[in-house]
Amino acid sequence: THYMPPKKKKLSDAEAQKLILEELQKQNRPFNHTLLHATLHGAVTKTQCQSLLDTLADKGKLIRKEFGKAKVYWADQEGLESVPPEKLKELDKEIEGKKTNDKRANLHSCCCLI
Fold first, then answer.
1. Which of 20, 28, 32, 57 could pair with 64 as two cysteines, CB 3.0-4.6 Å apart?
2. How far apart are CA 25 and CA 81, in angstroms?
3. Residue partners of 77: CB distance under 8 A and separation at least 6
4. In sequence order, what E strands does 12-69 have?
5. In this predicted model, what pLDDT tens digit does every residue of 56-86 receive, in sequence order?
6. Whole-angstrom Cα distance, residue 75 to residue 73?
7. Residue 53, number of CB atoms within 10 A of its CB
């Protein structure tokens, strides 16, 4: 006989909805049900994934966009905290500083090879 690994415990709809919502909020990008199923590593079945995505969209927890038969879902970003313009400028300066340091480090390593 072949060894069969134990089956994963099936999540209740409430547990699966929570998992789906948390994943979409964490990833903060669009998903279709197939991609989300793969991302969750089978914790939620494809069929359950599709129906729960629709349920969450109907409740207003997710945004749903339909393209013919294809549906794409993403977390509603309305309640997300926005970053003040001053903080964005500060981060831009920090990024530029790191780019400059990176260029200097690359230039130094090139010169040392000669």
1. 57
2. 12
3. 28
4. 62-67
5. 999 999 999 999 999 999 998 876 677 788 9
6. 7
7. 25
- Put residue 11 in one of left, alpha, beta given phi > 0 → left and psi -120 to 50 → alpha: beta
- Summarised one tens digit per residue, pLDDT across range 9-53 is 778 889 999 999 999 999 989 999 999 999 999 899 999 999 999
Q: Which two tokens stand for residue 104?
A: 């200097």
Sole residue written with tokens 């994934």:
49
Q: Which two tokens stand for residue 111?
A: 């010169």
What's the alpha-carbon Rg for the chain, to the nearest Å? 22
Classify residue 40 as exposed, middle or buried by CB count within 10 Å of its CB (0-12, 13-18, 19+): middle
Amino acid letter at 48? Q
User: Which residue type occupies 82?
Assistant: S
